[in-house]
Task: structure prediction
Amino acid sequence: MSYSERDLTTLPANLPVPVDDGAAAHMLGSRAPDIALSATDGRKISLATYQAPRIVVYAYPRTGRPGEAPLVEDWDAIPGARGCTPETCGFRDHHAELVAAGAEVFGLSTQDTAYQRELVTRLHLPFPILSDADLELTRAWRLPTFEAGGQTLLKRLTLVLRDGRVEHVWYPVFPPDRHAEEVLDWLRSNR
Result:
């Protein structure tokens, strides 16, 4: 079985809900490690030194492509795994409002930049995706991960950073397709 575009943008019913396993408990108030990541727009970006009033970083396991099979047969059974494309579409659709609320947006995954660029092009994303394919930031910041198909993938979480320090954390994130609205509401309430 391979994904169609509709499969990628629509969440199936009855997905398992991820539980808070405490793997992000250390994130609130932490300082981002000064590690430059490749961005899909060609820049190298360090979340520790990036100059913006606020930065929203939504981390996700991995996106698929139309015509491509899921990473593992039971992908939908892994709590929090499915929904990366709908989540990304939410941040795309609310991007102008997120910027107006004072935040720049970055996606983050452990997929390589070339794979991520296809996503940016296909979904017409107005923001870059950061690649931590070498797991350097993931290990230094102890980001929550899981293993699937022989790959280390990020568990879904979202961080709001101000001056390189984490001001707010969402973990676990569910449902992913409505998460951008939740982030926008928080930004508007915490100007």
Summary: The chain has six helices and nine strands. The first helix runs from residue 5 to 9.
